[in-house]
Write a structure and sequence with these properties.
Length: 166
């Protein structure tokens, strides 16, 4: 016999956390990928707010399967050091919310300039990976049509089978 564990994008149910929890419970779904609630992206939650979310979820018998982080959903030419601080904040939230998984993306690159930015994207994703590894976390990559790897050459160049370290 197989046991399936279902997880839901809770913010596609409703924006209010209480309503999200009520619907998840009604349908017997015990996990959610936390992206946003109460009008705030997970990236905007403080550590104290995340602790409040965790308490509500635990009281309801729901666990966080992953953080649905907006990491990598920005222009590749962003201020990366500042952006790295945001990633580190999300790492802390993952620990607070008791999940080992953070979903990320791979940056928006100017159309037609994918080759120019391949090494930059790989370097940035590698920095995220190094931090995650030190923190015993797993990064889950989600491809999006405007991201670097949406272009077939980008997928090939950044795949684990290539010579790049990701």
């Amino acid at each position: 016999m197989y046991k399936f564990i279902f997880s839901a994008f809770e913010d596609e149910i409703a924006s209010n956390l209480d309503e999200q929890i009520e619907v998840l419970q009604r349908h017997g779904i015990e996990y959610l990928e936390f992206r946003s609630a109460n009008g705030k992206s997970v990236a905007d939650y403080t550590e104290n707010e995340a602790k409040e979310v965790l308490k509500k979820l635990k009281d309801s018998g729901i666990k966080v399967s992953a953080i649905g982080a907006p990491i990598g959903k920005v222009d590749v030419n962003c201020d990366f050091e500042k952006y790295l601080d945001l990633f580190k904040h999300i790492v802390e939230l993952a620990h607070i919310l008791e999940t080992r998984y953070i979903r990320i993306f791979s940056f928006y690159v100017p159309e037609g300039e994918e080759e120019k930015y391949t090494d930059v994207v790989i370097e940035r994703l590698s920095k995220f990976t190094e931090i995650a590894k030190k923190e015993n976390l797993v990064l889950l990559y989600k491809n999006e049509k405007e991201n670097m790897e949406a272009v077939p050459k980008g997928v090939l160049k950044s795949s684990p089978q290539s010579t790049h370290p990701i």
